[in-house]
Write a structure and sequence with these properties.
There is one protein chain. The protein is globular, with a radius of gyration of 26 Å. The chain folds into two domains: 57 residues, no CATH class; 238 residues, MetI-like fold (Orthogonal Bundle), CATH 1.10.3720.10. Helix 7 packs across helix 10. Helix content is 72%, strand content 0%. With 318 residues, the chain is mainly alpha-helical.
């Protein structure tokens, strides 16, 4: 091969990836067209409103508008760390969120592995359907059900307690019991739907691995521990990193519909604090500053967790 032929071949090789990528995009043009609408919605409702973050640096007045309002020299951010109510909400948010990560995050993983071991298909379908149902119900509806279940006068839980000679307990007004109720009801609502992605990952495992393990004498428990768990671990790590990014999201809808002033000391979180400050007290600029602080912390947690995991393993988001 002469020099000119080699150069021509190299040019073709360099251009071929671009051509193949464009050809693939043309083949999947309908899928890209379908992706266009969610992308537009994401831009309109998630990125355009970021313009309003400016008011966190201003003493916002609706009459003056965003740009007409005076700058405040980071006054709202200084107030964050001197406001007792915010400090308490921050502590509660971190505490509740960590409990949900420690207790609620592994629940769908365990549930998915257990579902995978069910051999009766009818029983499996019924179990999955029942477990998925709460996810598709809003916390407004579920909270009304939970309030009735734990009611001191009418609730079945207190009926059982009194039947065994105990005294009725007002779970949702008790600082001791409110957080456990939050964790348990959160697991109940999301365990079935959260297991779907793990079941899909388990379904992609090569059956030959299980067959080889059976030939070596492995029982079902050993196959779960040495094949199923390691195979879904990359997905677990990715979802764990994303969950850490929401460390300051402790469940706004759930808590707003369940809590009351008697449990503010343990249940008031950043989102409910922002709700009261912004919509009830009309401190839009301060509420925006609190929300911006929360999002910055979330980004730091995602970047930090991903960097640490990438150093110790080959898995990560990027």
């Amino acid at each position: 091969m002469d020099t000119k032929t080699a150069i021509a071949a190299n040019k073709i090789d360099l251009k071929s990836p671009k051509k193949s990528t464009w050809a693939q995009m043309k083949k999947m043009k309908l899928l890209y067209f379908m992706l266009l609408f969610p992308a537009i919605m994401l831009f309109i409702f998630n990125y355009l409103p970021m313009y309003g973050v400016i008011i966190s640096f201003k003493n916002f007045s609706p009459g003056l508008g965003i740009w007409g309002s005076p700058w405040n020299n980071f006054e709202h951010f200084e107030r964050l760390f001197t406001d007792f109510m915010f400090i308490r909400a921050l502590k509660n948010t971190i505490f509740i969120s960590l409990l949900k990560i420690i207790i609620a995050f592994p629940a769908p993983i365990i549930f998915a592995i257990l579902l995978n071991e069910i051999r009766n298909q009818k029983f499996l379908k019924v179990t999955q359907s029942i477990s998925y149902l709460p996810h598709f119900m809003s916390w407004v509806i579920l909270s009304a059900m939970i309030i009735e279940v734990f009611s001191p006068q009418r609730g079945i839980v207190n009926f059982i307690i009194t039947a065994f000679g105990g005294d009725p307990v007002n779970f949702l007004s008790s600082k001791l019991f409110f957080i456990p109720v939050l964790i348990l009801t959160d697991i109940w609502k999301e365990i079935g739907y959260g297991a779907i992605i793990y079941l899909a990952t388990i379904a992609s495992i090569d059956p030959a691995l299980y067959e080889a393990a059976e030939m070596d004498g492995a029982n079902r428990l050993k196959k779960m521990l040495h094949i199923t768990l390691p195979s879904i671990m990359p997905m677990v790590i990715i979802l764990f990193i994303l969950r850490l990014g929401g460390i300051l999201n402790a469940g706004f809808d759930q808590i707003l519909n369940l809590y009351n002033p008697l449990v503010y000391e343990v249940a008031d979180i950043i989102d409910t604090y922002v709700y009261r400050s912004g919509l009830e007290q009309f401190q839009f600029d301060y509420a925006t500053a609190v929300g911006l602080f929360k999002n910055i912390i979330g980004i730091i947690f995602i970047l930090g967790a991903n960097a640490i995991i990438r150093r110790r393993s080959e898995h990560g988001i990027w």
